């Protein structure tokens, strides 16, 4: 398994995706993240394990299609992103909502 440098691992994971569906997945120990479009499953696994210090069971990815956005007579596209759904092993968890 090739190791990539730690600085590149931090750039792979952009932000967690928090919606109604993804909060239901938290009960099954699955977490959703928006990731770099060029990242593969192996890089995503290494990045999550390095950043959150957890052990990963599986990684599922999907490319979201671009959404059309209209402002007046101008039609554009919202940025599409790659979504990664990470399943952790049972004894691990990630605290996405720190107490403030």
TrEMBL record:
A Pfam cross-reference name: Ribosomal_L23
Gene3D superfamilies xrefs: 3.30.70.330
Keyword Cytoplasm tagged: no
Gene Ontology molecular function: rRNA binding; structural constituent of ribosome
An annotated GO BP: translation
One GO cellular component term: ribosome
Keywords: Plastid, Ribonucleoprotein, Ribosomal protein, RNA-binding, rRNA-binding
InterPro entries to which the protein is assigned, alphabetical: Nucleotide-bd_a/b_plait_sf (IPR012677), Ribosomal_uL23-like (IPR013025), Ribosomal_uL23/eL15/eS24_sf (IPR012678), Ribosomal_uL23_CS (IPR001014)
Superkingdom field: Eukaryota
HAMAP family according to UniProt: Ribosomal_uL23_B (MF_01369_B)
Family the entry assigns: Belongs to the universal ribosomal protein uL23 family.
Protein name: Large ribosomal subunit protein uL23c
Gene that produces this protein: rpl23
């Amino acid at each position: 398994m090739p190791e990539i440098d730690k600085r590149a691992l931090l750039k792979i994971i952009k932000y967690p995706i928090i919606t109604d569906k993804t909060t239901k997945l938290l009960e099954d120990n699955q977490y959703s993240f928006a990731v770099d479009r060029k990242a593969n499953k192996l890089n995503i696994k290494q990045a999550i394990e390095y950043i959150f210090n957890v052990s990963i069971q599986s990684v599922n990815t999907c490319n979201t299609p671009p959404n059309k956005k209209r402002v007046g007579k101008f039609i554009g596209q919202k940025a599409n992103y790659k979504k990664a759904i990470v399943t952790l092993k049972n004894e691990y968890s990630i605290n996405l909502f720190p107490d403030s």
